[in-house]
Amino acid sequence: MTGAAEPIAIDWAAWAMVAGINILAILSPGPDFAITLRNTLARGIRAGVLTAAGIATGLSVHVIYTLAGLSVLIAQSVVLFSIIKLMGAAYLIWIGIQALRARPHAEPSGDEPARPPAARGHTAFIAGFLTNVLNPKVALYFLALFTQVIDPDTSLPEKGLYGLTMMAETFLVFSTVAVLVGQPPMRRAYQRSAHWIERALGTVFIGLGVRLAFVRGVE
């Protein structure tokens, strides 16, 4: 007689460690935070939340190929790592150049911030997705986390749980950033000097892109 399948054992101490480390990583300023901030200020809370969803979805790509063992290949292949790195750097620099070209907006009237320019929802989602998935530093981060913090004998479902937890944390944190930054007082302050803020963020994006271009893989 065949017995019922044994329940999957979860090491909750390891799970808590992964969740804690990931929160600290999310809170570190970087391209994901910058794109969420820019899209929220320029387009509103909905765009910021969609950007957060795109970032979390991009994170799922890193989770999948890390579980498949491809993160080791990316880290150890100079050519593959360089291609992803240069694509990510070029994308960030392109965003920065677009932001530097910002022009002054008409002064908003009344207490409400000016209505953001019309844009399709998928634009913000794709921006968040590409910013995350084209960042090879995330691949190195997952490689380090999954090889040093998580036991090699950890089951695939348990590793999948860790990945889903990291995606959920990422979405929740950046969605919260969008909700806070997208409040009317913040938007009104942004509208008064939008082109200067855009240009400042453009400089940040270009700096992040240049920095990413010089990132080295695992020695």
TrEMBL record:
The keyword Endoplasmic reticulum does not apply. The lineage of its organism: Bacteria, Pseudomonadati, Pseudomonadota, Alphaproteobacteria, Rhodospirillales. It is a multi-pass membrane protein. Keywords: Cell membrane, Membrane, Transmembrane, Transmembrane helix. GO terms for cellular component: plasma membrane. PANTHER family: ARGININE EXPORTER PROTEIN ARGO, ARGININE EXPORTER PROTEIN ARGO-RELATED. GO terms for molecular function: amino acid transmembrane transporter activity. The chain crosses the membrane at residues 12-35, 47-68, 74-94, 124-149, 161-182. This is Resistance to homoserine/threonine (RhtB) family protein.
